[in-house]
Protein: Agamous-like MADS-box protein
Amino acid sequence: MSKKTLHLYLSRSVSLSTMNNKKVKTTQGRQKIDIKKIENISNRQVTFSKRRAGLFKKASELCILSGAQVAIIVKSPGRRTFAFGHPNVDSVIDRYLAGNNSGAAASQTCFASNYPSEFNEHYAQISKELEFEKKRSTMIEESKVAYGGGLWWDEPIDGLGLAELEQYAAALEELKKNVAMRADELMLVKAASVPSSMFAMNPNVSSDGLGDYVIDQANDFGDSIVPIGYDFGHGHL
Amino acid sequence: MSKKTLHLYLSRSVSLSTMNNKKVKTTQGRQKIDIKKIENISNRQVTFSKRRAGLFKKASELCILSGAQVAIIVKSPGRRTFAFGHPNVDSVIDRYLAGNNSGAAASQTCFASNYPSEFNEHYAQISKELEFEKKRSTMIEESKVAYGGGLWWDEPIDGLGLAELEQYAAALEELKKNVAMRADELMLVKAASVPSSMFAMNPNVSSDGLGDYVIDQANDFGDSIVPIGYDFGHGHL
DNA sequence: GACTATTCATAAGT
DNA sequence: ACTTATGAATAGTC
Structure:
């Protein structure tokens, strides 16, 4: 690999020296990689984050475009769990487990994560219609903002996403109303981390519970997050 | 849309007539679309299929590259269920539901699908190792390395594999029988891992023409499929 | 189901 | 984190 890298560097150097253009290749651009475990830790983490986000985005698009229901659970090597679901994780899973295909789907996209125990069943279901709509129009630039702040998932999370949470909370209110009317496409939520305490509450939220969830609104797709914080001590994936 | 289409056609026509090159644009290539429900039925079905495959592939790559565990359940609008899982769907889901991170994971990539009722639990565990083997020979040999070398789940997990493989082998036997009966389309796992795909069998498949499984080995990733056919009458997703 | 022409996702590099 | 060049996914067609 070092050899390859060297080669690449040389190529670039050549380009730089031989080409007398304004357009200088500053990077090699995307390189082809073979699909095998990435040995370099930090690299692996970065890839994990990027690709998980990409996966969720794809899932989101699939839901919207085709009207499908999707649930995804991802566990990082470091034991953190991320989930994506439309209409929501649990309903899809439940149905899967039961083999039950009846029932109408709720219209929302929800994300959840890992908890130490079984609070699972009830956690929130929320949808992000608003964000989605809003975002759909302004789409691009927000991502950066949303993302800014470091890898959300790898820190103990705490007071982050203050403004966002607030904003999010407000959005939820509206959402509640709209949600009843809406139906399928929506998605979104970005992630901020949520203090575990937020999550812990609400042992049993009824259907429109609000409350605890955290969301990540990075892109125009829904993403999810880690509510539970019981394991945060590890500091990484 | 018709307008747009017209435009595009015209553009192509112009290109054809004005450009006197060998290189004639035969298609428009990928077009940008906005993420909203596709109204055209057949189009939606096609997109669903393509994107679901893409999603599973991405998931597969994520698992391999980062060592993550992933489970995905997808329900088509037509109520068919597709699932992807690594090490396998159920283990990931179970863990998710229980919030339990202990336990070793099975060492396989598996796929399952929907059943009319609750035969679920028992759905077949079979894999298409055969296909895989066949492919593996022509494809890549790193599978073992990749798999063995990287603990999929680096930490709680440990040396699993052996027993599992054995079990897996047994499952294969069954698969061989069942495979002949039904399924849908499945894809293959590539290098990674111990590829195994499981799919549920269905006790009663009705007619519908869809045949049964197809093993699609187009790509290098594993995919899963629909065993059950109770709903095939619809003729589509 | 297979083919391009394109858009999209992202590995590297900064 | 941000950019960029490039590999990949895929919309439209046949």
Q: What stands out?
A: The two ends of chain B are 25 Å apart (CA to CA). Residues 156-192 of chain B form one domain. DSSP finds six helices and four strands in chain B. Residues 59 and 229 of chain B are 25 Å apart (CA to CA).
